[in-house]
Amino acid sequence: MIRGGRNYVSSPPVFSNDSKRLLVCAGNSVAVFSTDTGLQVASLDGHAALVTAVIVVPASTPGSKILCFCWTASLDGTIRYWDFAVPEMIRSVDIKLPVHSMVIPSLFNHLVEKSEKAVKSFAYICVEAKEEAEDRAKGLFQVRKCNLTDARLVGGAVLAEMKKPEIITMSSCGELLGVRRKRKLDIWKVPSTDSGRTVLKKITLHHTKALTVIAFHPTERILAAGDATGRIMIWRGFGNKTFAMANGHVNGSSMITDEENPGVRGSDDAESCTTWHWHPAQVNLLSFSSDGAYLLSGGKEGVLVVWQVDTGKKKFLPRIGSPLLHFTDSPDPSFSSISCADNQIHLVRRPSMEILKSISGIKLPYSHPEISKGMSSGVSFDQNAGLVALRTESYAVQLYSLFDDRGISEVQVYERNHQPVDEVTIVVTSVVLSLDGSMLCTSEVRLPEDGLGHLVCLKFWFSKSKAGDFSLSTIVYEPHRDAGISAIVFHPNRRMAVSSSFGGDFKIWTSNSGVPMKEESQPNSGWICHAVGSYKKKPMTAAAFSPDGSVLAVAAETVITLWDPDKNLLVAVIGEAIMPIVALSFVGNSDHLVSASWGSKPQLAVWSLLNLSTCWSYRLHVEAIASSPDSSSFAALVLLSDSGGVYDPNEKSHKTVDGLILLFNSAEPNPVAVWSVKKAKGGALAFIRNQSSDEESSSDQQQAAQTLFAYMNADHEYVLFDPHGTEAEELSVTRWKSQSSPEESGQVGYASLYGELLPPIPSRKHTPWSVPSFPTERPWETIFSGPSHNLPPLTLLCGPFLEALFEKRTAVEE
């Protein structure tokens, strides 16, 4: 099983003592990257929930830099101690409360005197106080002290209470702690010898706007804080009246009167407060340099600002390309790291701030206007190479390797410089890869301004290498007049593509006269419209090619039409679905076609291409469909909120589960396997060919050639596994039950007169899975839907027709 697509920027990363490795919080684990290559070299696995903090134990002597120990905290309620060189877990502290933030001052406090008696280690954590949740007078989250040596929380030691979790910020020497609470800033002084009974001295600083980030000066009593409006406040001499200095006396500069404290609000304990303002939006990042001479700040505009602390002068590192979140210094003063909102971590050289390497995670989802009325096509898979193409917020497409869990390349669909206050004017609506991964097609919509300027654009891209470097081949403006594009599909064996539109037509596009993909094409060869088709002027809502490319299926709203793509001839029409069809897929080597419909009565239906009729169907809201290329299996991602599915009430670990993956053999209505999943809305499915090594034996190669199954959720986290292996059994933890009533099993319409064309489905009594059908309120409307030359005389139809108008009464057994 392969898991990936994790968020690398949810928490600040941390460098190892020798600066050769970077530890990154990545979902339920900690990923260890090499700073030389930018590749992942290890992983700390064991937490059952999101890891929120990682702290490397600092080296006390130059010779101890080779030691690789760290602490981690997680929402699973545990704090763990690791040796990340092996890697292995050494010990675990279970506090039974979700930990949102953690600092350990004793690791960095150099004033602790060495003695023969072992000094206990304490951590300060922000936890969710579940026992206080019902008391609205108190906060739901608390800052508490945890005794790591004795593996327990310190009773009664609650430093602060908040309505939401906050990040605990610590000074570089471990002497000061800070937590922001809206417009207030609480600061504690940690004694050099901490104990469970020690009461920490506290001061509170006030501001007029909501605070977003804070940072302590490494050597002086200077505190920087950023707010939601882009301002940076610099408090100097804070706490000199309350906190004693290390040598027992207070700073002489604190003897001035309150009237001489410029910028300080009320009775706040600070000498002065100055304001710097350059950022147009909220400040996300603040960090002092190791010598304290500079302050670095960043925010939504994607520019790193370097301030001189003494003078306030500034210089910039522009065009990073994404909002900045975290800045981390390494023990090696020659380079640092910058974490960005696009799930990238840049390693930069100091002081030139040149980007040396980038750790590229999968692009995170973003909010955008909903343009398409059908199933989202913002995710496309390369089944052979194990790549996925995702649209990004910067009007680009990212090519991401599912097996290597790293970014391969990016294709800039629309040129754009990052601006913090840009309104969305372009929406990339579709991203589709060809079967061999050599071609890419994208569609974009330029939103109208004041009712003018609406433009739909179709772009074809080509690539000659497997590195995912695509070049633009053809741009087609308004490919379907002013109508939006509903679907794009590539021919499996030729350089041919089809785009369908809500305007009532579909177009067949060819390149180099539709030459086979294996043949070389000219880099400057363009795409032209080969043919145009329509059916009764109905909106064309979905399209799919058969595995051999000989048949093109296009959904004309509720009707499935079958076409010869070469001659553009209508071959056949399959009976109507209940609601408009949003997705079509041919099932591998079978003679079945799968459709998904959305609306008030959503439907998952399997159609027979031999009989041109429905085989079976379910009333389910399907979010995604994927078919196996080498078998008769297909999978459907179902949303529970619309499917009528229920859970086993004894299951307690799936409160947030909102979807199911159903694996079917197309000939049977009973699912082969069922998996419960989270964040199913906006998810995607695919069957991926397993990557085999050339050095393996022939038998091993055959075994490795199996097809793997990929599921990607709405947050772009994915899992890759063998659907028929033991790993799949571990995932199948929740059983779904249908809620359809027994009356729904009767025949309706045309089938009520002439019977089923296929063998009847086994009785519901012999299987735990029910097979619901969909009776219409007026079944006689479909009696005459068959071909006219096959209809019997009216004398034979009159009796069944009249009988269908009357309600049947169930016989009562005496």
Automatic annotation (TrEMBL):
Transmembrane segments: none annotated. Gene3D superfamilies: YVTN repeat-like/Quinoprotein amine dehydrogenase. PROSITE patterns: WD_REPEATS_2, WD_REPEATS_REGION. It is found in: Nucleus, Nucleolus. InterPro entries: Beta-prop_WDR75_2nd, Quinoprotein_ADH-like_sf, WD40/YVTN_repeat-like_dom_sf, WD40_rpt. Keywords: Nucleus, Repeat, Ribosome biogenesis, rRNA processing, WD repeat. WD repeats lie at residues 204-235, 276-317. This is WD repeat-containing protein 75 second beta-propeller domain-containing protein.
